[in-house]
Specification:
This protein is mainly alpha-helical and about 190 residues long. About 45% of the residues lie in helices and about 10% in strands. It has helices at about 5-20, 25-35, 80-90, 95-100, 120-125, 140, 150-160, 165-175, and strands at about 40-45, 55-60, 105-110, 135. A two-stranded antiparallel sheet has the order 1-2. It has a two-stranded parallel ribbon with strand order 3-4. A hairpin with a 5-residue loop joins β1 (about 40-45) and β2.
Length: about 190
């Protein structure tokens, strides 16, 4: 089992390096996003470690007037042109490096949910998931399990945390960067 201090040191180091290396992309997305919506960053309260709320920062992928709901409940028509690209490439997650640096999140951990997602919060609490920081990616994400399946997601989160190791930490990051998983999907309502 990997020590929390080691994870935190890796999170800080990799997030700062990633932020510097990816800053030209960050700036480009900010400029295009500002031109498209006038508001390129999206802030939303999420449930963090020990169920404490924090403000998550992402690149905006939906129109600014879109209701604040879980992704799988959002309307597909709300996704902007840039937003579709950001979701496919997972670049919408880039500003969360700030959340990692601040200590709200880890690079690897259970994806943070909304306070309104009671079924997921209860399932995660029952599995002991909230003793860990939420993450940008993790086992469930690289296997395409999203928040539309709260019980299953909580089980996979707990499974990841029970067997968490240094090789797994890097494996989840590499698999995410190389395209594994689809992240939280907007489910069509046909």
């Amino acid at each position: 089992m990997i020590q929390r201090g080691t994870i935190r040191a890796l999170d800080l180091t990799l997030s700062m390096i990633g932020g510097l290396v990816l800053s030209p992309i960050f700036l480009g997305v900010l400029l295009v996003g500002f031109a498209e919506t006038g508001s390129p960053l999206f802030r939303q309260v999420r449930v963090g470690r020990h169920q404490r709320p924090f403000t998550l920062v992402k690149f905006r992928t939906m129109r600014p007037d879109t209701p604040s709901v879980a992704t799988h409940l959002a309307d597909t028509s709300a996704v902007t042109r840039l937003g579709g690209f950001l979701r496919r490439t997972k670049l919408d997650e880039l500003p969360q490096l700030w959340n990692v640096i601040k200590g709200d999140m880890s690079l690897v951990g259970p994806r943070p949910c909304l306070p309104e997602q009671r079924a997921l919060i209860e399932a995660r609490a029952a599995q002991g998931v909230f003793i860990h920081r939420p993450g940008i990616t993790g086992l469930a994400q690289i296997h395409g399990i999203d928040m539309a399946e709260p019980e299953r997601l909580a089980e996979w989160d707990a499974r990841m945390l029970r067997s968490f190791s240094l090789p797994a930490y890097f494996r989840y990051i590499v698999r995410t960067v190389t395209g594994a998983g689809r992240g939280d999907r907007i489910h069509s309502r046909d």
